[in-house]
């Protein structure tokens, strides 16, 4: 994929929300209609949508699955690529989404707990459809909606999951996530230099210059949430500055 800005549509209890560092109850944004939000991003020029079921990620129950299905059915015909994560804990969960028309499923907790699942899905559906989310806090990977810390680093797990067949990695720096304090590019650079598959960056984007900084790490894309929802910049502005940076 060429470098692009991907708007996030994070869902909790049927609403589109933005949490501070993934903490339930810390919503800085809460919008009633995630389908309308997704379609608005499409109208503003998005090429890819990033859909996350936070109930699934935090509690393991994919409560927002019907909303995600609606977004896929209404936005795929408009030419959108769609990646979905949050609560995908089994082969069956992933297969259901891919059969629905989702382009990439994002595995996090399930991949860390059962790395072979990545290989099984890549063998069955193709590596390009399998993304592994590596969410880093204090240098270690967090799982279960960022409630638990693992013993592994992003670089260690990035290399491992590439070997198992993952087609891309979503790397979130939790230390910066949702704080609107800017990005720390060093962990992203370290991961990008350690693997050959695309790395999608996430976490901390606050201003347009952050997008340029992440592009220059060699990342393939960046997921943006809070900065767009709080009006730090618009999606068209983001697309324009990325396009003009050569």
What would you note in describing this structure?
There is one protein chain. This protein is α/β, with parallel strands linked by helices and 246 residues long. It has one domain (4-243): TIM Barrel (Alpha-Beta Barrel). It contains eleven helices and twelve strands. An eight-stranded parallel barrel has the order 1-4-5-6-7-10-11-12, surrounded by eight helices. Helix 1 (34-43) runs parallel beside helix 3 (65-75), helix 4 (91-100) packs parallel to helix 6 (116-125) and helix 9 crosses helix 11. The radius of gyration is 16 Å and the shape is globular. Its EC number is 5.3.1.16. The active site is at residues 10, 135. GO terms for molecular function: 1-(5-phosphoribosyl)-5-[(5-phosphoribosylamino)methylideneamino]imidazole-4-carboxamide isomerase activity. This is 1-(5-phosphoribosyl)-5-[(5-phosphoribosylamino)methylideneamino] imidazole-4-carboxamide isomerase.
What keywords describe this structure?
isomerase; 246 residues; TIM Barrel; single chain; alpha/beta; HisA_bact_arch; 8-stranded parallel beta barrel; 1-(5-phosphoribosyl)-5-[(5-phosphoribosylamino)methylideneamino] imidazole-4-carboxamide isomerase; 37% helix; EC 5.3.1.16
Largest sheet: 8 strands, parallel, barrel
| CATH class categorisation | Alpha Beta
CATH topology, what is it called? Answer: TIM Barrel
From the spread of the alpha carbons, the general shape counts as globular
The computed structural class is alpha/beta
Radius of gyration: 16 Å
Low-confidence stretches: none
What is the count of helical runs? 11
Overall average pLDDT: 91
Helical content band: 25-40%
In CATH, what is the homologous superfamily? Aldolase class I
Oligomer designation: single chain
The structural domain count equals 1
Tally the beta strands. 12
What is the architecture at the second tier of CATH? Alpha-Beta Barrel
Tell me the strand percentage band.
Answer: 15-25%
What is the element string, with H for helices and E for strands? EEEHEHHEHEHHEEEHEHEHEHH
GO biological process, one term: L-tryptophan biosynthetic process
Catalytic activity: 1-(5-phospho-beta-D-ribosyl)-5-[(5-phospho-beta-D-ribosylamino)methylideneamino]imidazole-4-carboxamide = 5-[(5-phospho-1-deoxy-D-ribulos-1-ylimino)methylamino]-1-(5-phospho-beta-D-ribosyl)imidazole-4-carboxamide
EC number: 5.3.1.16
InterPro entries: Aldolase_TIM, His_biosynth, HisA/PriA, HisA_bact_arch, Isoase_HisA-like, RibuloseP-bd_barrel
